[in-house]
Each structure stands twice: as C-alpha cells, then as structure tokens.
Design brief:
This protein has about 70 residues and is of the alpha+beta class. It has one domain. Helices cover about 20% and strands about 30% of the residues. Strands 1-2 form a two-stranded antiparallel ribbon. The chain has a two-stranded antiparallel ribbon with strand order 3-4. It has a two-stranded antiparallel ribbon with strand order 5-6. It is globular.
C-alpha cells in the first residue's frame, strides 16, 4: 500500500485482545479521553470491553482509574 492508496478520515475499528480489526478504512480514530485524532499507525492503547481508543499510556491509565472509581473496571 502506498501513500496514495491510504484512506482518509475516521476509521471504524473493532478492538480485540492484542490487535484490532479495521472495519471501515480511515486514517485515524478518536481518543476517548482527549478527543484527539490517533493515526491508525500510532494506535497502541485501547479497551476491548468498552471499545475505546486512547492516545497514549497516560490517557489509558486515567480512563482505567476513572472506570475503577465508578465501579466499572
């Protein structure tokens, strides 16, 4: 795949254990904590149960702590 073949816009992704599946091609997903765009190539953190992506480890940890406090983790 070269640069010209890449999809643009928001991707629809299914988050799995240790991997993810792109359902609708796109260039990015949205961080559940910050609302920032995360390039598909940079996507490393997500929650399988909640089907949420996170921009980095700090956002993932913050969300985990938030859910634990709410009794959902």
């Amino acid at each position: 795949m070269n640069f010209m073949d890449r999809a643009s816009g928001l991707a629809k992704v299914e988050y799995l254990d240790g991997e993810f599946r792109i359902l609708v091609p796109g260039a990015y997903v949205i961080c559940a904590m910050t609302g920032k765009q995360i390039a598909i190539d940079d996507l490393r953190y997500w929650n399988v149960d909640r089907q949420e992506a996170y921009a980095g480890h700090a956002e993932a940890m913050e969300r985990f702590q938030q859910l634990r406090k709410e009794g959902q983790a």
